[in-house]
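ok new one. same drill as before - structure tokens go in, u give me an amino acid for every spot. 103 of them this time. try not to just spam alanines like last time pls lmao
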């Protein structure tokens, strides 16, 4: 998916729906950040969408976002399913190019 580019548009948005992924979020963030940085330098954003997880995914996402300005976290009020979580991320991302991956 390609979007119109503005001076503040990141080159890449990585959209990641998550459900009960607390145990892997630190590693996921490190790996995705490293891959994005290798691809486009610092010109990227990562969106983690919490799809009503019942574990500690949301607090982990908040901690990661507090330390990384390129990380956007979205908390859905309940589990809406993969497609709606993905759609929420696509609606809110701003990159010229968009990459969708699963946690």
């Amino acid at each position: 998916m390609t979007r119109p580019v503005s001076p503040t548009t990141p080159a890449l948005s990585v959209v990641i729906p998550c459900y009960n992924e607390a145990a892997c979020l630190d590693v996921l963030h490190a790996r995705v950040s490293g891959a994005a940085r290798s691809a486009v330098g610092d010109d990227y954003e990562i969106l983690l969408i919490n799809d009503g997880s019942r574990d500690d995914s949301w607090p982990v996402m908040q901690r990661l976002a507090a330390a990384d300005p390129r990380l956007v976290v979205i908390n859905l009020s309940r589990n809406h399913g993969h497609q709606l979580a993905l759609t929420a991320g696509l609606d809110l991302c701003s990159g010229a190019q968009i990459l969708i991956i699963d946690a």
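The mean pLDDT is 94. and btw Residues 65 and 71 are 5 Å apart (CA to CA).
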